[in-house]
């Protein structure tokens, strides 16, 4: 038997309470809504181990089409816990990082819409300008702007 071969990473999943707020946040960063639908039934529950479930999902894609974020709002069963206020050194999946153009302008737009800067915007040598931003429901994203390009 040959070793399986990794082809790509399809998406990162984020569970939210408000799909509309999360879609708006990621749209502001530059992702595009590819589709929105409800997934339900016994087959879906077999994949997740949650038995029968009803989940509204929205798929957001990066402009290059290579990466996606799957936003999920569980209707049934109910969400049982969260880590919205976990610090950046908490165990587990924490954030996704996007490379953007004009970081300062994007951070300004996001904070006007209610996002909070976690820490501050910092410069790493002459390579990057970086920051973390918390969006709706405490979603943490990293933003990086390549410098000198």
TrEMBL record:
InterPro entries: Glyas_Bleomycin-R_OHBP_Dase (IPR029068), VOC_core (IPR037523). Residues 8-146 form the VOC domain. CDD domains: VOC_like. Pfam families: Glyoxalase_4. This is Glyoxalase-like domain protein. It comes from Planococcus massiliensis.
């Amino acid at each position: 038997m040959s070793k399986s071969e990794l082809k790509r990473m399809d998406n990162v999943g984020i569970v939210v309470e408000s799909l509309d707020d999360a879609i708006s946040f990621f749209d502001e960063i530059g992702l595009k809504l590819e589709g929105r639908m409800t997934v339900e039934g016994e087959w879906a529950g077999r994949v997740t181990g949650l038995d029968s479930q009803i989940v509204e999902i929205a798929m957001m894609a990066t402009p290059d089409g290579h990466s996606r974020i799957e936003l999920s709002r569980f209707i049934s069963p109910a969400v049982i816990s969260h880590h919205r206020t976990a610090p950046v050194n908490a165990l587990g999946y924490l954030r996704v990082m996007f490379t953007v153009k004009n970081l300062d302008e994007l951070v300004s737009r996001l904070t006007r819409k209610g996002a909070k800067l976690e820490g501050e915007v910092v410069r790493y040598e002459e390579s990057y300008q970086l920051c973390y931003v918390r969006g709706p429901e405490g979603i943490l994203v990293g933003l990086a702007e390549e410098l000198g390009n």
